[in-house]
Protein: RNA polymerase sigma factor
Organism: Nocardioides agariphilus
Amino acid sequence: MEPAPQVDIDALALRAADGDKDALDDLLVAIQPRVRRICGRMLLYPQDAEEACQDALMLVATRIGTFAGRAKFTTWLHAVAANSARSTYRSLKRRSVELPSEELPAGVDPRTTSVIAGSRLDLLDALEVLAATHPLLVEALVLRDIQELEYSEIALLMDLPLGTVKSRIHQARKTVQPLLVARL
């Protein structure tokens, strides 16, 4: 069995951004596993990660024209996928509040149990607090600490000086740290 040929994602993305429909189709197929992994880092329950993945792919398809090629496409993609996962989390959280407690398994506390079983609920909740209190800090923190992008990639993606990115990440960490539940 021959290995799959390497795809130049950046070139494919630029062709798709210029309106090439075949390039867009090829791009979506090529990036789906990566998007699923990105969403899976934030939403560990597979069905939730898949929902976020599909939403992110839809966003890529509809917003590919905004990709200008200033940064690597994968850097842009990380931001789209991470934002999609956070949006999916917010949606699922709203739905879980509406879920009658009698539909939860016996012995499960509806105040601490979500339909997003297995996810770092404390982290996702802390990101929601951060978004409400310091919205400019969220994206940099997610890209660095969850998606594990390099500071320089984040600076390019956000079109900010490197020092500003580092400052935002530092401030975000200071804000979020007290909100995280200690793990044993």
